[in-house]
Amino acid sequence: MIDKTFGMGITKIFRWAGSKLVYNAFLLYYTLLDKKVSFSNKSMIIAALAYLVFPIDTIPDFIPAIGFSDDLAALIFVIGKVKGNINAEIEKRAKAKTDKLM
After folding, report:
1. How far apart are CA 102 and CA 94, in angstroms?
2. Which residues are CB-neighbours of 91 under 8 A, at least 6 positions away?
3. pLDDT per residue over 68-93, tens digit each?
4. Closest to 95 (Cα-Cα) out of 22, 38, 31, 45
5. Are 76 and 24 in contact (CB under 8 A)?
6. Which CA distances in Å does 52 have to 36, 87, 88, 89, 93?
7. For the segment 29-80, what is each residue's pLDDT rounded down to a tens digit?
8. For the whole prediction, is pTM greater than 0.85?
9. Which terminal residue of the chain has fewer beta carbons within 10 Å of its beta carbon, N or C?
10. 21 and 73 in contact (C-beta within 8 Å)?
């Protein structure tokens, strides 16, 4: 159920931002679902994903070309922090979900 809800919400963002942003969002999302991930890492992931979907940003999302750059930067920053928790299965699931939306 959560996967379906997240996927539906991310579809709107996908149309605006493209596959790189969406892939990174799904990468963090599936990392968040992993039971082996620490509470502190899950907290960072939740913050990054919340920033992505929250309508008020440093750079408004409706600005063409650069509107999602701050969101992508936040996702990439957190991915760098939790990269030890991202395994091949998570990458595969994120890629499959992103490809499905294309």
Report:
1. 13
2. 27
3. 788 889 999 999 999 999 999 999 99
4. 22
5. yes
6. 24, 22, 24, 23, 20
7. 999 999 999 999 999 999 999 998 887 777 776 776 677 788 889 999 999 9
8. no
9. N
10. no
Q: Give the residue from 43, 13, 49 showing the smallest Cα distance to 28.
A: 49
Tell me which residue of 79, 68, 72 sits closest to 29, measured CA to CA.
Answer: 79
Return all residues near 21 (Cβ < 8 A) that are at least 6 apart: 13, 14, 52, 68, 71, 72, 75
Which residues lie below 8 Å from residue 84, measured CB to CB, with a gap of 6+?
none
Name residue, tokens 């919400």: 9
| Percent helix, strand and coil across the chain, each to the nearest 5 | 75, 0, 25
Q: Is 25 within 8 Å of 75 (Cβ atoms)? A: yes
Domain boundaries, the chain: 2-101
